[in-house]
Amino acid sequence: MCFRPPELNKLMHKCPACGQFNKPDAKVCKKCGGEMPEDTVDCPECGVPQPISNKVCANCGFNGKPGSGDPAKRKA
Ligand SMILES: [Zn+2]
Ligand SMILES: [Zn+2]
């Protein structure tokens, strides 16, 4: 049996080098062997993509609470 959280199966990740679609948890591309970038999510306050493992936005400091990011760095 393989219990995999369903959200892991949502998106296939496209290799930036060759365009091959890989499993979201793949660390390297199955076609070219290139490194797959970590999944990112856009910061809701400044819009800068952050690795999903980030708890705090590296750009504006947003920590999940609305308004916690640096207002000067917020997207217009
Ligand atoms: Zn590739
Ligand atoms: Zn941010």
Description:
With 76 residues, this protein is an all-beta fold. It has no helices and four strands. A two-stranded antiparallel sheet has the order 1-2. The termini are far apart. The mean pLDDT is 86. The protein binds zinc ion (2 copies). One zinc ion binds at residues 15, 17-18, 20, 29, 31-32, 34.
Question: Could you list some keywords that capture this structure?
Answer:
mainly beta; two-stranded antiparallel ribbon; binds zinc ion; 76 residues; single chain
Present the secondary structure layout.
Layout: E1 13-14, E2 21-22, E3 40-42, E4 49-51
Antiparallel strand pairs: 1-2, 3-4
Bound molecules: zinc ion (2 copies).
- Structural classification: mainly beta
Assembly context of the chains: single chain
How large is the share of residues in beta strands?
5-15%
Largest β sheet strand count, sense and barrel closure: 2 strands, antiparallel
Uncertain stretches of 5 or more adjacent residues: none
Q: What number is the mean pLDDT? A: 86
Give the C-alpha Rg: 15 Å
Strand order of the largest sheet: 1-2
Termini separation comes to: 48 Å
Helix content: under 10%
Cofactors, ions and other ligands in the entry = zinc ion
What's the total helix number? 0
Shape: elongated
Number of strands: 4
The string of secondary-structure elements, in order, is: EEEE
